[in-house]
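Box S1 | Example of a co-folding query
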Amino acid sequence: MITVPPHLEIHDDRFTKLVHPMSRLEVIAEGFTWTEGPVWFGDRNCLLFSDIPSQRIMCWAEAEGVSVYRANSGFNNGNTRDRQGRLVGCRHGMRDVVRTEIDGTLTVLAESHDGKRLNSPNDVVVSSDGAVWFTDPTYGIISNFEGYRCDPEQFGRNVYRLSPKGELCTVVTDFAQPNGLCFSPDEATLYVAESGSSHDPSVPSVIRKFAVKGNSLRDLGVFAQIAPGLPDGMRCDILGNVWTSAADGVHCFAPDGSLIGKILVPQIVSNLCFGGADGHRLFITATAAVYSIFVDVQGAEPWTRRAKFEG
Ligand code: MG
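Box S1 (continued) | Returned holo structure for magnesium ion
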């Protein structure tokens, strides 16, 4: 009989098929301040991630270890890729969403709505039609730790959709603080984290679920409650399970919303992504470090499953 290791917590048999009991949780990079925004670049066989307070985007590769990908990142937080493989990130410092072109130049995609500056875009996903969906809480402007302290100009903390033609619209306006977000594998569902309990204990720590109807969303209510802590970044796997950050590690929820297992991590988890040579390695940003664990399922984002980039 194989003993379940102490870093795995199994709540449902479905989880035993997703993480092998011999999978080790390892630290692959450490010595940072607050890591976030992991994104896999399989075509370069490396992981990019943010260290927000030090204003750097770091690069980790199996053979080379850690290097600086970008200094002076403007307090870059969440990252993703579009279907052309370009890095798309959220910068607290410039309060924008920015794309890194193939030649390395930067293109600002969104920085204002209704003539007012965004709060501090936090996390971002790109759907297969090229639309950019992002959250805009105030974390990057409420202190100088992760950005520049400033009063918000927006009426709320919204979720936005930037159309492929460049039109920016709100799609949800009733979050206390929207944070991480991810699509189901078929992009019919968008999950968005509510992390407002960070500053207001009366706000429930939940992941909300929305049906995607073209340019807009229909609220399907609460998908999952997160405890301990709150949800920040998250990703779906190809089976539709939602892997989310929490205070004690990574929680895995089945598509029906039931908690099926946890990967316990010694530091508070901010975000995670799938990647690795075969697409079934989980990379976890957690406070001062980045952890990795092999899992038995691949990520929903198609470009994380192939070494050669194909959107
Ligand atoms: Mg976040």
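The longest helix spans residues 13-16. The pocket of magnesium ion is lined by residues 77-78, 122-123, 179-180, 232-233 (CB under 6 Å).
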